[in-house]
Amino acid sequence: MSDNVARRGFLIGGLGGAALLAAGCTSNEPAASGPTSAAPAPAQASGGNDQPGTKVTIGFSAPAADHGWIAAIAKNAEATAKQYTDIDFKPVEPTNDINQQISAVETLIQAKVNALVILPNDGQQLNQVALQATEAGIPVVNLDRIFPDKLAYRTWVGGDNYGMGVAAGHYIGKQLKDKGVSNPVIVEIQGIATLPLTQDRSKGFADALKTYGFSVTAKQDAQFTVETGNEVATSLLQAHKKIDAMWNHDDDQGVGVLAAIKEASRNEFIMVGGAGSLNAMREIQSGNSVLKATVTYSPTMASSAIKLARLIAQGKGMSDLVENTVPQSITLASETITKENVEKYLALGFES
To answer: Which SUPFAM superfamilies does the entry mention (predicted)?
Structure first.
């Protein structure tokens, strides 16, 4: 994505999982023995937030579903909204056109929705319309690609791009160290090189590899598309007659990457993916693929964004936290899926 394709995040167990990731101390902590004074009480008992409350209208805007991850974002948002009788869900037509997305968000502002969930095509270019919503008294839940102005959103929820790189780097670094490989050839297939999220992923990868004394030999961006993934992988395979490890940032473009690898009949290296698609998980599960792991950036973040928007619009906090209001920022963890643990992640995967 020019921020044109959305990126990934990971959450388990709905809002309870988000709470655990957002804070180290929750209302589930056991009480200390002995007398207490002025101890804050949780906003509600666990699970109470799912009980029907004030009816709220939540507007939703995201890019067009031109690949698996984005399609899952929209599907998860709608499915979660339908779980609540007190949500009137108002999605606008998805688009990859910046001006059309701005216009669509403006219609939601004019409709005076109670909250907005926005995954912008480009956070910088949609910053102004998000500010308009905030100034109109409509809280904005900024999903994934962040608006540069903190005044433009009430809460941000998204994945840990730097953490994705770190997870991929540690997996590859440990595997190569355990095999006694020195001076390995490590190639990296990025999404879009100019995006901050891509740069964060690459920095995390380089920083983790450095702890093993390794570095990236070559990297190239593949635009988050299957076709370009195929072309870039073909080029890298031709340029390097022997490769020890490959990190592909995105499982959607990874469909093309894996096709190129199979076409070239190459299997001397290990590969790590990114996001947690079902097809990637099936490759890992088979044990017959160069793809040995993928690091999560799950579209379940959209489900959490809808839950957060509902709580904010109803003036509630997160029931697993002591605080009375929803946090300003929630960064979801990036986890490493391997053959050993893949079964527990299958339910959270998406089709590329």
So the answer is: Periplasmic binding protein-like I
